[in-house]
């Protein structure tokens, strides 16, 4: 909302433009917001647990600015993240269950801004050649991979609701993460009610569940 306020058609911007003999709204868009995004995008993406914050900021900018090119860039990056940021068994490349939960929650938070988004009538993205109508991040191949990543986090959940302390995971019942991933549980889904066998082959974990 704050970003949208900056680019709205406020009469004060018109008054200031007349006083300074410059288009202030354009300067805010081009010299502040778009220049910030351009600087931001010059750095390579790293699909670690903090990546969702970066993608979420881009999503909010795209929606607030009404820029379909930026929205498409976010959707493409989201697809790359669920393909490259996780191993084939769905485990985050950083391996710790807590990191996987953090990235998943942040990706879901980010995609919440775009869910239901449709491009302006007749728009075709010049980079990917597609149009978006009623965007749903849980559909298609990307949605399937996202579900696999959720399942991989849940596979290492204890009945207490916390993750198994493997890799650099810390078993700390008192620890709660910051927003947007401040769930009481350190796993993505509900607490398991039964123990079932699971295999996370890429990570090298086998759960020998028996009831």
Low-confidence stretches: 179-185
Mean pLDDT: 83
Structural class of the helix and strand makeup? mainly alpha
User: How many strand segments?
Assistant: 2
**How helix-rich are the residues, as a percent range?**
40-55%
Sequence of strands across the biggest β-sheet:
1-2
Topology order in helix (H) and strand (E) letters: HHHHHHHEE
Number of helices: 7
Estimated radius of gyration: 21 Å
Taken as a percent bin, the fraction of beta residues is under 5%
Distance between the termini: 49 Å
The backbone outline, from C-alpha atoms, is: elongated
Main beta sheet: strand number and arrangement?
Answer: 2 strands, antiparallel
Folded structure, characterized:
- The chain is mainly alpha-helical and 211 residues long.
- Helices cover 47% and strands 3% of the residues.
- The chain contains 7 helices and 2 strands; from the N terminus they run αααααααββ.
- Strands 1-2 form a two-stranded antiparallel ribbon.
- A hairpin with a 4-residue loop joins strand 1 and strand 2.
- Residues 179-185 have low confidence and may be disordered.
Short description:
By secondary structure, the chain is mainly α. 47% of the residues lie in helices and 3% in strands. It is built from 7 helices and 2 strands; from the N terminus they run H-H-H-H-H-H-H-E-E.
